[in-house]
Amino acid sequence: MADANANALILKRLISSIQDYKKSPYDKIQSYKDLMDHLRSMMLVYENEEVKIILHDMELTFADSVVPVYSPYYIDMVLEKCEKLLEIRYGSDVELEETVEGFDDEVQTLLDQLTTTCTMKLQVLTIAGMAGLGKTTLARKLYRDPLIEYTFHYRAWNCVSQTYRKRDLLLGVLSHLINDLTDETNKMSDEQLGETLYRLLKGHRYLVVFDDIWDCTFWNDIRIYFPDDKVGSRVLFTTRDIELSLCVRAAKPTHVLRLRTEDESWKIFTKKVFI
Questions:
Q1: What domains can be seen in the chain, in order of their start residue?
Q2: Of the chain's two ends, which shows fewer C-beta atoms within 10 Å, N or C?
Q3: Is the pTM for the entire model greater than 0.90?
């Protein structure tokens, strides 16, 4: 893994340069551009759609935002994107421990909301915040928590993003509930897939996470396939839209993530990027 170590050292140096309070804003911006150049060269042989989306998102965020590139928000965003690119570049079957530095209180609060028995009705909960704040990481931490695994009979994870197809969403959830989707399943209509999902979930306590929600349209399309049998089921959304909880009729106000401090961001870097 010499190549991985070398890349991690370069990323560490460039991000340290962005954070260096002695450097001028111009030098910090140049360091960010150097970081982008390094990431592009590192991922040249991985010219797939996922890599293009990650790099393009970093470029757009940098171009459109008035937030300084060396702010904790940007460092969080850079760390999250670097982690995704490194997972593509050096992907393995080893499941890394999720880093939720600074979010311990959020983890406990959300665990309580997801597993509480004060109401057994189906509840929708939302986590919101700007890109790069760690919404997905926090949701993964909750999803993999032993208490969550013990509490829910079924768990499913699905990434929605800005563009989606109803069919893909239904198949994505079903893939977590059925070990091997057959050709027959893949040939079903959207309505048949929805009915299959409904029957599988019926009578069971389930948790379904929908990551990266842009609006509530998708939920209006598929919510009828999630039965409410008063057994304590939960649906969790991550989103950039703080107001999303209103249109999806969430049980509680949106859980809005704060910006991490510089120290918290640096600890995340040393844990997740530096190999």
A1: 2-96+262-272 (no CATH), 104-256 (3.40.50.300)
A2: N
A3: no
